[in-house]
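WARN retry 2 of 3 for item q-0093 after timeout on previous attempt; input resubmitted unchanged.
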Amino acid sequence: MNDLGVKDFDMAEIRMIAQDLVKLSGEDEKKFLELLDKLDDLEDVQAIFHNVELNED
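OK item q-0093 returned
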């Protein structure tokens, strides 16, 4: 990374980023949002990654 001018790292990680988003509707979207809420409540879960396109309503 020295070629890019980066000399110090605080953290390095690899992430798999989805190329395609999935659109859920109706009951499926509601259940998915409930799942996200339950995962977020768990202390052991540090990050949640998904490829679902969420409405910002």
